[in-house]
Design a protein that fits this description.
Two copies of one chain form a homodimer.
Chain A lengths: L1 H10 L4 E5 L9 E5 L6 H11 L3 E4 L14 H18 L4 E7 L9 E2 L11 H20 L2 E7 L1 E3 L8 H10 L3 E4 L5 E2 L1 E3 H12 L5 E5 L5 E2 H12 L4 E4 L11 E4 L2 H7 L7 H17 L1
Parallel strand pairs in A: 1-2, 3-4, 4-6, 5-14, 6-11, 7-10, 8-13, 9-14
Antiparallel strand pairs in A: 9-12
Helix pairs in contact in A: 1-6, 2-3, 3-4, 5-7, 5-9, 7-9
Chain lengths: 290, 290
């Protein structure tokens, strides 16, 4: 997500400072800093003090597929994020956008509406994100900065971890393996990573406060996503729906109400599912075959 | 509160390790450790790893009168507490009691019932405590320990900060000053510090999980508290009710429903308001006159 955001920020009227833990390729238009938010909070705080950023876009969290729902690292990221926010405010920061998740909502409702759908996370990941959302909202009230909470739905696209649905399906098909799936009727709000990035940048530049869903407002079935990938790759695909058990507690429908994003932030996603799948599948094909 | 808790723990079948930031008089029956949870989380985590406690009673937070409601240190304490909890679980901890506040509740309800009264903190202090409560509840579910969340009402007694209602009133009367107060009709659940300590120790030794109110279940008016102090001191008191404006947003009534504390934890406060005021006023009189 950071990779998709930085070029957009560099085009906007910002002096962009990228902070990350690991060394990586230089990002054109951005100054780079290395800091370990988890392991060395003092270093991160000293960096924030030195840079004195006006705006903060905080994307970092633990997101290892299969593990992040229950990992104790969610507590560490809550801690690191709270400290980062405090350092940002202390250094005179004016506007922050933090990243949350649809997993904060009571997902039995299906369509998630900010300020209406109850917040009732059922996972440690959702609870830690929601805890940060609550404390950041209270903090803005006393510390004199403005903040929004971007609740992400199902982001996909180039660069996502290879274990996730889209890349795993692409890789399976390209390898000629059978792709084992659950029934595939789960309806989800998939949003292309570049649309997420553009929404975050638009939100950062706005004065909108509080939670804003980042999604398309359209639910598609996992089956439709997987079949679109197979079609895009244009080669025989052995898709085995029903080969894996579905979690009986899994919500049948998770979709964003995007009224706030559209009417208050003034943003609408531009990339259709067909185009997004096309680009994501193409990106992964290049990497698998090279 | 720590001072009141440690002797009770030392009487119970625990090996007591006291961790604090500042040097202080030795506590009989306890091993003492110095660690700066805020400034040096690694040191605190190393200590938890070395001691490998079975039980954790976490009392530390920022509580400076007049400032703690809105201080950014609430974020730091949320961060430090999240990290402490994670270190505790990683070191094999089995049972934790963390301390919350009635300020987590929607206080327009008056009587606060765990699991029924909505959690709707209106202050950064309340939001940070509630955030910790939510994330700790989710953490216990995946990290394999048991935890309770002690929601404190209006604790008073020997050792509390001198700016708070009871000591400030005692000191004002003893100094022969007029004591300026608001109307004094606010009804609050005052609970003596030794009862709080005994409730916490009982809760720590129990298997009760989740939020438990720590109060008496009885509301008394601030006026009654102040007049009881004056009576106890037995000297002329110039009590000026109405001399200070009351906060128009202040809830008229804040009282704990103590059903859970009584029926599930098996604890009932033992110190009446008259006795508690007697002891608190006596304690402060000794210190003011010495």
């Amino acid at each position: 997500m950071g990779r998709a955001v930085v070029p957009l920020l560099a085009d906007a009227p910002y002096e962009v400072h990228v902070v990350r833990h690991s060394r990586a390729a230089a990002v054109p238009g951005a100054r780079e800093h290395r800091a370990d938010l988890l392991g060395d909070p003092h270093a991160a705080e000293a960096l924030v003090e030195a840079v004195a950023p006006s705006h903060l876009l905080h994307l970092a969290w633990y997101t290892e597929p299969g593990r992040y729902w229950t990992s104790g690292l969610n507590l560490d990221w809550l801690a690191a994020s709270a400290r980062l926010l405090r350092a940002f405010a202390a250094a005179g920061g004016r506007r922050a956008v933090l990243v949350g998740t649809c997993a904060e909502y009571d997902l039995t409702d299906g369509t998630c509406v900010e300020g209406v759908t109850p917040l009732r996370p059922t996972t440690l990941y959702g609870a830690a994100k929601n805890a940060l959302q609550e404390v950041s909202a209270a903090h803005t009230g006393v510390a004199g900065y403005s903040a929004a909470w971007a609740r992400l739905f199902f982001a996909y696209g180039p660069g996502e971890p290879p274990e996730r649905l889209v890349p795993a399906t692409v890789r399976g098909i390209l390898a000629g393996q059978s792709v084992e799936l659950s029934h595939g009727r789960q309806l989800r709000d998939f949003v292309f990573v570049e649309d997420v990035a553009a929404a975050l940048v638009k939100l950062l530049g706005s004065e909108v406060e509080g939670a804003v869903n980042i999604g398309t407002g359209q639910a598609v079935s996992l089956r439709d996503v997987v079949e679109a990938i197979a079609e895009r790759l244009g080669q025989p695909a052995d898709l085995r729906f029903g080969a894996r058990p579905a979690d009986p507690n899994e919500p049948p429908l998770i979709v964003a109400d995007t009224t706030r994003l559209r009417d208050e932030v003034g943003f609408a996603p531009a990339v259709s599912l067909a185009e997004g799948i096309d680009r994501a599948a193409g990106w992964w094909r290049e990497r698998v075959s090279s």
